[in-house]
Specification:
45% of the residues lie in helices and 19% in strands. With 596 residues, the chain is of the alpha+beta class. The strands form four sheets. Strands 2, 4, 5, 6, 8 and 9 form a six-stranded mixed sheet that branches. The chain has a five-stranded antiparallel sheet with strand order 10-11-12-16-15, with no helix packed on it. Strands 14-13-17-18 form a four-stranded antiparallel sheet, with no helix packed on it. Strand 13 and strand 14 form a beta hairpin. The longest helix has 40 residues. The chain is elongated, with a radius of gyration of 31 Å.
């Protein structure tokens, strides 16, 4: 059981898989200079994307927003986004900010530029719109975590009542009701916040009728609506179950299983499993994984509440849950290994990507969980030992003739007259002590499991390692994929928005030979800023090579080059210098790995 848990939680990103859409190409090309103004701007992605009312924002050389048509899919292809431009465009540099929703329900955004006739002599700070509203994102993530937590508690508590069959189920009614209401409320919040989450706007825009209507017709919105309907059916099932006094048979168990599977399907149909490779298998795996997680972790809470009350049937209930937990962990191991292969891509991604580092953090929490689980297992065996000993010690009764002398151990035999010496069953005080110890260890298990589930929730919104590798391979040299960026914070000491901030540097493909470098500067308010100069040099100290100047060119909103030759593999020092005025500049060094 412990080995299975190690396998599943070592590699179980659970939901994340190769999914997030990555920009594959732009038309016009990023940084290009065109003789004639284009009629459209077209983006091509690695997978299908959903469009928003404001998917494109085009800014002209004068920093004013250019009037565009409605965003559509080019030639009916769902992996493209296109917007029409006016018939006449003035000479100069144009900045295009875009935002779409990938097939796994997560918003993706970026920016690029092109020029008509010639590049603008001066650059402006263009307001490319919100990338993300922190409050909306925080509320949305909190609702997602509560939804996962409530679903696990709802499924696990119901499964515990049906499969472990405790004599007294009254301690389980309150958590069942609380889980149902929490899941209902969090689902409603997710439905309302879906539109501002996609658009990157504040929570107040959640009550915009047109935005809410668009949410209800999209796949994530439809999945959330289906979840609400399933919750209503689940409530009717639980009420009927609580009123029935007869024995709960296979039909009851089958109905509960179907409802739980349908509930899990609302996650699989709208998130990572619904996009990427092997979608049918991935969705099946995701449903099984979510169900097993609920039966195990939610069952722990039910066991914790059951242990608070001394009961004669604990010696039977606890071993039953132990067997069910073992089966759940087996399912988690199989599905987790598959989904981790689908999402991680390589062992190198464990340390080189945010997804992998979160997975390692989850592993650290799991290590603690396994230590506590081992302690709980020991007290589970001790709690069940008295009943086992009593059953094993009971002798077989053999019919005797009337008047025959009593055998050893028969009624009427005087004490101390012989017979096999058996260890007496544990006293009530011993059983209560074992129950209290098991209760404490399970309580710690529940707390650690809640933390592990929180990390898993963050993982569901993190770009998987395989998707990151695909984006690095397929993205055009001039694009700004967020997957290969190194963040370089700076502080010149100047009291202005540009005095401190961060430079997001993209090195593509970070291998020996020609590389593209893009640098985007953000100010202290996390908005895009224009600075007089950004300079990046590369040095390989171990071979005494460099500094090699990247010779970045101002592209009208960011700095880039497509021709930095890094001749050897190794750990290079990337020195980034940001000048914000005639007298204020700062240099920051970061290590970057160049592969062969």
């Amino acid at each position: 059981m412990l080995l299975g848990a190690v396998l599943v939680l070592l590699l179980a990103g659970a939901a994340p898989a190769s999914a997030h859409a990555a920009l594959r190409a732009t038309d016009p090309d990023d940084g290009s200079v065109l003789r004639q103004a284009p009629r459209h701007v077209t983006l091509t992605f690695t997978e299908s994307v959903g469009l928003l009312d404001d998917s494109f924002r085009v800014f002209g050389p004068d920093q004013r927003r250019v009037h565009t048509g409605e965003a559509t899919h080019a030639d009916g292809r769902s992996d493209t986004a296109r917007v029409g431009l006016p018939g006449k465009l003035a000479q100069g540099t144009y900045t295009v900010a875009w935002r779409v929703v990938s097939a796994d329900s997560h918003p993706v955004s970026g920016a690029f530029s092109f020029s008509v006739g010639k590049r603008s002599a001066t650059t402006f700070q263009a307001d490319t719109g919100p990338a993300e509203d922190p409050l909306t994102r925080g509320l949305y993530d909190a609702a997602r975590y509560l939804a996962y937590l409530a679903a696990a508690l709802l499924v696990g508590t119901a499964a515990f009542a049906l499969l472990c069959r405790p004599a007294d189920t009254s301690p389980l009614r309150r958590p069942l009701v609380a889980a149902w209401w929490t899941l209902l409320g969090s689902t409603a919040v997710l439905l309302l916040l879906r539109a501002p989450y996609e658009a990157g706007t504040g929570p107040a825009s959640a009550f915009d009728a047109s935005a809410l209507g668009r949410t209800l017709t999209g796949r994530p919105g439809e999945a959330l609506l289906a979840r609400l309907v399933i919750l209503l059916l689940t409530a009717a099932f639980l009420v009927r179950l609580s009123r029935r006094r007869e024995r709960r048979g296979p039909a009851t168990l089958a109905t509960g299983t179907v409802l739980a599977a349908a509930l899990a399907l609302t996650w699989a149909a709208a998130e990572h499993a619904s996009a990427g490779i092997q979608v049918p298998l991935a969705m099946t795996s995701s449903v099984l994984h979510l169900l097993a997680t609920g039966v195990w972790l939610g069952g722990l809470v039910a066991l914790l509440l059951t242990l608070r009350r001394a009961s004669d049937d604990l010696v039977e209930v606890v071993p039953r849950f132990s067997r069910i937990a073992f089966a759940s962990v087996t399912v988690l191991a199989v599905t987790g290994l598959y989904q981790s292969w689908r999402g991680l891509g390589s062992l190198f991604a464990l340390t080189s990507t945010s997804y992998g580092r979160l997975l390692l953090a989850k592993l650290a929490g799991v290590a603690v969980l396994l230590l506590v689980a081992g302690y709980s297992r020991r007290w589970t065996q001790r709690l069940a030992a008295p009943a086992t000993a009593v059953r094993a010690a009971a002798p077989a009764r053999v019919p005797q003739p009337v008047g025959a002398p009593a055998e050893h151990g028969e009624p009427g035999e005087p004490e101390g007259s012989g017979g096999a010496a058996e260890e007496p069953p544990a006293s009530d005080a011993d059983r209560d002590d074992r129950r209290r110890r098991l209760h404490r260890s399970v309580l710690v298990e529940v707390a650690v499991a809640a933390v592990v589930l929180m990390i898993t929730t963050v993982l569901t919104g993190t770009l998987p390692g395989r998707a990151q590798a695909e984006a690095a391979e397929q993205a055009p040299a001039g694009s700004l994929p967020p997957t290969t960026q190194t963040t370089v914070p700076f502080d010149t000491g100047a009291a202005s928005l540009t005095g401190r901030g961060a430079v997001h540097v993209t090195l593509d493909p970070a291998r020996v030979g020609e590389n593209g470098v893009q640098a985007v500067v953000y100010g202290s308010d996390t908005g895009l800023v224009v600075v007089p100069e950004v300079r990046i040099t590369f040095t390989l100290p171990s071979r005494k090579i460099g500094p090699i100047d990247a010779e970045l060119t101002d592209r009208g909103g960011y700095w880039s080059t497509n021709s930095v030759n890094l001749p050897l593999a190794g750990n290079w020092t990337m020195k980034t210098t940001v000048r914000v005025s005639d007298v204020d500049q700062v240099s920051v060094e970061r290590r970057v790995r160049i592969e062969p």
